[in-house]
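ok trying again, last paste got cut off:
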Amino acid sequence: MKKIAIYLILICCFSCKTDRGIGVDYSLLPENKQQKVVLDLSHVFSAKQIASLSQKIIDYEKRTSNEIAVLTVDSIAPFEDIQVYSSAIGDYWGVGKKDINNGLVIVLRKNQKHVWLSTGDGTTKVLTDAICQTIIDDFMIPYFKEGNYYLGIDKGLDVIMSKWN
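nice, full thing came through this time. structure:
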C-alpha cells in the first residue's frame, strides 16, 4: 500500500506544462551567467557526467536549434510551485529561440525527489504532456529510485531528443 501511495504521489507531481506570463521576481532564481546547459547546484553529477550531458545537449542544439537546459536544486524556495519555477528559469535564462519558443528545461529537485519538464509553447506541439509523463515515468524515475540521477537524466534526454527531432 505504501508503494502505491508513493507512486501515486510521484505521478501527480510530474508534468511538462508551463505557465508563461506569471509575474516572477527573477532575482530569486539561480543565475546562469556562464550560460551552462547543465547547472548542477545539488552536486548530483560528477564533472565527467556534467561534461557528457552538456556535450549531448550542445550537439543536439547544433543539429536542430532546439534548446535544453538541466538544473538540479535542493529546494525551489521561496517558490512553492515547481511549474512556475521551471517556467521562470526558462524565461530568465533564455532557453529556446524567442521567435519559435523551442526550449525545454528539466528541473530536478533532489531533496524532494521531484522532476519537472517545462516546455516552451513551440515545444509542446511535439512533446505533449502525455509524452513528457511517459519520459519521466519510464525513463527517468526508475534510475532516480536507484539514486542514479545521471542515468535518469541521460536516458530521459535520449528519449526527448529522439521524439523531438
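cool. The chain has one domain: 2-14+35-164. Residues 1-21 have pLDDT under 50 and may be disordered.
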